[in-house]
Amino acid sequence: MRGMFRKVGVVLVCAAIGASVSRADETYTFVVKKADEKVQAKRGWNLQDWIAQRDSMRTRDLWLAMHTPTPYEFYLGGDYRFLDSPKDARDHRIQFGAFARIFGLTFERESDPDRWNAMFNLRVFGLYQQGTNLTLFAGMRAQSDPTSFRSAIYGASLTLYLMRLGGVETAYRRYGDGTSDAAGAGKGGSQFEANLFIDYKFFRIYGGLLTTDVDPAQKRGWQIGGRFYF
Predict the structure, then answer these.
(1) 72-229 has which CATH code?
(2) pTM to 2 decimals?
(3) What is the pLDDT of residues 170-186, one digit of tens each?
């Protein structure tokens, strides 16, 4: 009986020692943590903290730059036109465009007649020109052959994707009256084009119908061309 009491006493003593050690550890941890907080508060903002925060912000900025779409877009292209009404004729056009978000500039050179077009663009719907979009434009045309004149241009273009890599693009423009000669060159008119296109990454190939009523002939035909986006 006496031996059993001794065992119970030993167990109680061990338990008391263990509890004391546990409370001591908790007290030490609390004291050390509190001391670290005080040191941090006393130390305040220093160069090491600033360098660490700067490096962290640079890393986040780099990630955002790699995963955020660029607001700038450019394209360069051209098309060849087959005008078969009222007479068989050939014409080509070269285009260059530059956009910053919803604003852009377009420059064109046409061969027959020798003409330059410069237009300011406002994209009212869509994120990119190589995407579904509705864009309004206005500008000026300048012709030097067979007679020299300048006049206004305005209109709209619509690009609609019917599938992932292809769709339809249309454009309608009005030409204002310029200084016309006896043959009527320089008079205003209109032009409409409707194309089907296929995209392969940054390159687009297109072809479709073209109708012009300018200077003062009415022409009907079709065109085929390509455009690089970058």
Answers:
(1) 2.40.160
(2) 0.69
(3) 999 999 887 665 555 67
